[in-house]
Design goal:
Blueprint lengths: L6 H6 L1 H19 L5 H21 L9 H23 L5 H21 L3 H16 L3 H6 L6 H27 L11 H38 L9 H12 L7 E8 L2 H8 L1 H17 L6 E6 L2 E6 L4 H17 L12 E8 L5 H17 L5 E6 L2 E5 L2
Parallel strand pairs: 4-5
Antiparallel strand pairs: 1-3, 1-4, 2-3, 5-6
Helix pairs in contact: 2-3, 2-9, 3-4, 4-5, 4-6, 5-6, 6-8, 8-9, 11-12
């Protein structure tokens, strides 16, 4: 291929090289944070599209038809990589089989209009239509999902949807320009619009994608710091931090604290092993979470001890919650060998406005101890500062 590197052709290489650099940046980010696989898909898409753009920018018009299928395949697969990136991030499908069908039809058309009947304008029209359809593959499912609440995620979300719509509509631009504008494609208005729009989108989208990724990493680190790794409940430190915020809000009153402890948990570990004990902890944690609301807190304080902080709940109402938890554990039939059932005991105390949380936890812990002494698998509730009332099964 005779490539003439005049000033104009070198100038149009700025966009492809910039896009390739963005792809390399995303690939490096993926190497650092391999759980974010969508970064690798976007990096691959940028690399393929940038190479195709560079190839077509350098090739003389009379030789473009020789490489139409090759560059078309890079455009098509690169664009599908963009769709796969967004599909992975939003948990939807990029419809690979449908994408393969679209790609096959477009490549067949490119072959026909580059080998049988050479027509650059028709090839451009077919390719743009295919790219638009590929990029739109995950868009319907994305639109059906609830739009993200975070402003940064919303910008990422809508920028992709808008650019997907623009890509699908770009054939109309080709139609408006007509084939006469493509006599020298590297200097054509169409090619300038393609390069500028692609580079602008790549820059904007990469910045937002990296910002969202960094935010996700910090969120994941915070979640790991604040949550128990086995049960995914709040740990003691995170519980206390969240509890302070709720206790400072007068709209949350009345507040009750529940301390629950799995009965005979040491026997479970000793008799059936720690793997069985871990499964019991996870089952109990899941049951606890099913009986609380968004404002309530559920925490694993350590071992087999769990703490719940219920907002706008009196001790008597909290006692009904505890009884429902006990009933569900029994109804779920989580039975160990030799017929032993998993049961839990609770101590419940109010958190008064003028009382520290630690005082309420101490009272609830004392009531839990009383429930254990009374035979386990029961709930003890504090009715006033000076009196305890046992509530048995």
């Amino acid at each position: 291929m005779d490539v003439s590197l005049d000033t104009d052709r070198l100038y149009v290489l700025i966009a492809p090289l910039s896009i390739l650099l963005l792809g390399c940046t995303l690939a490096v980010c993926w190497l650092v944070q391999r759980r974010q696989r969508y970064l690798l898909w976007m990096a691959g898409g940028y690399a393929l599209v940038s190479l195709a753009l560079a190839w077509q920018s350098l090739a003389p018009r009379e030789e473009l038809h020789h490489w139409a299928v090759f560059t078309g395949a890079m455009y098509l697969f690169g664009t599908w990589c963009f769709a796969r990136c967004m599909a992975e991030r939003y948990g939807v499908s990029a419809h690979p089989l449908l994408g393969l069908l679209i790609g096959a039809v477009v490549l067949a058309a490119l072959y026909y209009y580059s080998r049988v009947q050479i027509d650059l304008w028709v090839r451009v029209h077919w390719l743009n239509t295919g790219l638009g359809l590929l990029q739109m593959l995950p868009a319907p499912a994305m639109l059906r999902r609830r739009p993200p609440q975070d402003w940064l995620e919303r910008m990422l979300y809508w920028s992709y949807v808008v650019f997907a719509g623009y890509t699908a509509a770009r054939p109309l631009l080709v139609l408006a320009l007509g084939s006469t504008d493509l006599n020298e494609i590297a200097r054509s208005t169409y090619w300038l619009v393609t390069l500028v729009s692609t580079l602008s989108f790549a820059l904007l989208f990469t910045l937002m994608l990296l910002a969202c990724t960094v935010r996700d990493v910090f969120t994941a680190l915070r979640e790991e710091r604040n949550h128990d790794s086995l049960t995914n409940l709040l740990n003691r430190r995170a519980f206390q931090e969240a509890a302070e915020l709720r206790l400072a809000d007068p709209h949350m009153a009345p507040i009750s604290v529940l301390i629950g402890d799995i009965d005979h948990f040491k026997r479970i570990n000793d008799s059936w092993g720690h793997d069985c004990g871990d499964r019991v902890l996870q089952a109990v944690a899941q049951t606890l979470q099913q009986h609380v609301r968004n404002d309530d807190l559920v925490s694993r304080f350590g071992g087999e001890e769990f703490v719940l902080l219920l907002m706008r709940t009196t001790p008597q109402e909290a006692e009904r919650v505890a009884q429902r938890i006990r009933a569900q554990l029994s109804a779920d039939g989580y039975v160990l060998a030799a017929g032993q059932r998993v049961t839990i005991s609770f101590g419940i105390a109010p958190v008064a406005a003028n009382t520290a949380l630690t005082d309420a936890l101490t009272r609830a812990d004392g009531l839990l101890y009383a429930a254990k002494l009374a035979g386990r698998d029961r709930v003890h509730v504090a009715t006033d500062p000076g009196r305890r009332m046992p509530q048995t099964a």
